[in-house]
Structures are given as structure tokens and as C-alpha cells.
Write a structure and sequence with these properties.
CheY-like_superfamily; phosphoprotein; 2 domains; alpha/beta; 232 residues; transcription regulation; Arc Repressor Mutant, subunit A; Rossmann fold; 8 helices
């Protein structure tokens, strides 16, 4: 068993599910704390020392969507939504306002741990990134040293997952990237072939950088294969 330094906050009001998640985290060597309300979650986050949030949306005091919005006003802590809401529009809405990933109930311990390890890897990459490269494509610019994105010189807010996806395309301009390759690079090998998660993330990214997401200027779909960032 690996002992992780990261501290995970479990925000879940269903006692059985909370115990299940906490037991799984303990077995895998994660440090964790658990609360059963949105207010309790915000209080814990403000106190600090939280590295990852596992967030249920159906909380008793107010909706988990509001928690995401409030946290994103001042923090980039990775947020993994765990919810029974399985409609694509719900997932897109959560990712669009700042969640990093979305796991639908019911779920297996294996899938939960895979998603958590992905989030931890992204967190460590963000902390250790020391590159100073600035890449530009038409009106779109990415500053890899500061992890900032600009569209027509105006900063565009990106979730960590959206940033990782866009950075991957910038580093491979003109190349067709298969869905499998993108998933492995952004989420990790153990994530599998969840093309729906990729489509949802791509839709959110396009809404932020494309004037007309239906006719993308920057990242086009290569039907049946994957995606490509235009080089001309």
C-alpha cells in the first residue's frame, strides 16, 4: 500500500456511501476527511490543507453546483463530482463551472481510485511545472509557465482538465490525436476508453475558445478517429 501525502475531502450526506468511499481511501493509503453538508465542506476548504474534493451534488443544505462555483471563486483545488445525476447536460454543467471530473453512481472502487490517481497526477504536474514556453495560434495563446490561456489577449478561465487538454493540442498542432491517445494523456492509462467524458470535456473547452463551437476554428473533429488542432 502506498501512503499518499495528499489530503482528500469527502463531501457526501449518504452515510453508507460516505463510509464506502472512506474505507476505500483508507485501504489505498490516502489521507481523508469527511463532511455531510455543503457548509461543512466550505468550512473545511477555507481552513486549508485540502488537496482534492470528492463532491456529491445532492447535499441537504444547498446544491453541490453552488459549492463548485464558490470554491472556483478563489481556488483551483481539483474537484471530482460523484453523483447519481447521469444526464450529459448535468455533467457538462458541472464541468463547465469548474469541476475537473464526473463519476456517476453507482461506481466501483477500481474506477473511483483510477479517477483519484488521475487528479493527483494533474495536481503534482501543476505544482512541478517549470516550463516557460508561450505558444500562440491565431488569437489563442497559452502560457505554459503560468498555466494561463488568452483569447484575443483576454484571459480565459480554464479548469485543470480543460487546460491539460488544450495544452496537449498546442504541443501537437497539426497532428491527428486519437481519442484513446488523448484519454491516456489527459486522464491516464487506467481510465479506459470513456469517450463520453472526452466529448463532454471537449464541448466545454470549445464553448470557451470557439466563436462558433459547431464550426470550430481551432480544434476540429476527425470523425471516427479523434481530434486535431489546425496548423493553418
Amino acid at each position: 500500500m502506498i501512503n499518499y501525502d495528499e489530503n482528500i475531502l469527502v463531501v457526501e450526506d449518504d452515510v453508507q456511501i460516505s463510509r464506502f468511499i472512506c474505507y476505500a481511501l483508507k485501504q489505498e493509503g490516502f489521507r481523508y476527511q469527511a463532511v455531510d453538508s455543503a457548509q461543512g465542506a466550505l468550512e473545511m476548504i477555507v481552513l486549508g490543507h485540502i488537496d482534492l474534493i470528492l463532491l456529491d451534488l445532492g447535499l441537504p443544505d444547498f446544491d453541490g453546483m453552488e459549492v463548485i462555483e464558490k470554491v472556483r471563486e478563489w481556488s483551483d483545488i481539483p474537484i471530482l463530482v460523484i453523483s447519481a445525476r447521469d444526464q450529459d447536460k448535468e455533467k457538462a454543467a458541472a464541468l463547465d463551472i469548474g469541476a475537473d471530473d464526473f463519476l456517476t453512481k453507482p461506481f466501483s472502487t477500481t474506477e473511483l481510485m483510477a479517477r483519484i490517481r488521475v487528479a493527483i497526477r494533474h495536481l503534482r504536474k501543476n505544482i512541478g511545472n517549470d516550463t516557460n514556453t508561450i505558444l500562440i495560434k491565431d488569437d489563442l495563446k497559452i502560457d505554459l509557465s503560468k498555466r494561463l490561456v488568452y483569447l484575443r489577449e483576454v484571459e480565459v478561465h480554464m479548469t485543470p482538465m480543460e487546460y491539460s487538454l488544450l495544452a496537449l493540442f498546442f504541443k501537437n498542432i497539426g497532428k491527428v490525436l486519437t481519442t484513446r491517445y488523448i484519454i491516456q494523456k489527459v486522464w491516464g492509462v487506467e481510465y479506459g476508453d470513456d469517450t463520453q467524458a472526452l466529448r463532454t470535456l471537449m464541448a466545454g473547452l470549445r464553448r470557451k475558445i470557439e466563436s462558433n463551437p459547431a464550426k470550430p476554428q481551432y480544434i476540429v473533429t476527425e470523425i471516427g478517429v479523434g481530434y486535431r488542432m489546425k496548423d493553418i
